[in-house]
């Protein structure tokens, strides 16, 4: 069995102890909340066995450019829309119908065939500005928000960032 910190070990931070104890860095800024208060509580995901056409529908229906792949409720990677498009252009995916729940898959390509490693995982207590900086640095449009035990609890996309910015602007101008 894994220890209290989970199967991957304890938490690691790049901040020095003195910086983490700095009272100025501990003060909460209303304009820079914890990402857990801004995230989408619903997590759109697929499994390694999810067919590519179903992934395309999930991406389109949820206005996403990336989707996390979960195994036993743990993130193992992600699929980017560019990879689905590449398979579509190559003729590996046939577009037919719109209800993937009632028709058989039109492709043998599955998430496992397009799996990219290392989804962007962030802790629910990280500051929004830090998560946005990570997303920009890694050129990602999806951050998977996790609880301290690595359980997926939400996701952050440009949609949630825009909602937060609009709500903040409305509050300032109210």
List the defining traits of the structure above.
three-stranded mixed beta sheet, 174 residues, 6 strands
Protein model, in words:
- The structure is a single chain.
- This protein is an alpha/beta fold.
- The protein contains six helices and six strands; from the N terminus they run ααβαββαβαββα.
- The strands form two sheets. A three-stranded mixed β-sheet has the order 1-2-3. It has a three-stranded mixed β-sheet with strand order 4-5-6.
- It is globular and about 50 Å long.
- 21% of the residues are buried.
Summarize this, please?
With 174 residues, the chain is α/β, with parallel strands linked by helices. The protein has six helices and six strands.
Topology, please?
Layout: H1 17-20, H2 23-26, E1 45-46, H3 52-61, E2 66-71, E3 74-80, H4 81-89, E4 121-123, H5 128-137, E5 143-146, E6 152-156, H6 158-172
Parallel strand pairs: 1-2, 4-5
Antiparallel strand pairs: 2-3, 5-6
Q: Strand order, main sheet: write it out.
A: 1-2-3
Strand content: 15-25%
| N-to-C SSE string, H for helix and E for strand | HHEHEEHEHEEH
Low-pLDDT runs = 1-28
Main sheet characteristics? 3 strands, mixed
Q: If helices are DSSP runs of H or I spanning 4 or more residues, what is the number of helices?
A: 6
The total strand number stands at: 6
Shape: globular
| Helix share, percent | 25-40%
Tell me the distance between the termini.
52 Å
Mean of the pLDDT scores? Answer: 81
Structural class: alpha/beta
- Kindly provide the radius of gyration, computed on alpha-carbon positions and rounded to a whole number of angstroms: 19 Å
């Amino acid at each position: 069995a894994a220890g209290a910190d989970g199967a991957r070990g304890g938490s690691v931070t790049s901040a020095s102890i003195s910086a983490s104890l700095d009272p100025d860095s501990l003060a909460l800024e209303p304009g820079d909340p914890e990402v857990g208060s801004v995230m989408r509580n619903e997590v759109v995901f697929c499994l390694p066995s999810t067919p590519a056409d179903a992934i395309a529908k999930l991406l389109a229906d949820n206005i996403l450019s990336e989707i996390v792949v979960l195994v036993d409720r743990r993130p193992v990677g992600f699929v980017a829309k560019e990879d689905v498009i590449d398979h579509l252009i190559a003729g590996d995916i046939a577009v037919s119908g719109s209800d993937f729940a009632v028709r058989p898959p039109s492709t043998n390509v599955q998430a496992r065939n397009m799996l990219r490693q290392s989804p962007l995982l962030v802790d629910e207590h990280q500051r929004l500005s830090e998560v946005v900086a990570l997303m920009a640095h890694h050129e990602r449009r999806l951050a998977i928000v996790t609880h301290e035990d690595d359980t997926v609890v939400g996701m952050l996309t440009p949609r949630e960032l825009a909602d937060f910015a609009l709500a903040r602007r409305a509050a300032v101008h109210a």
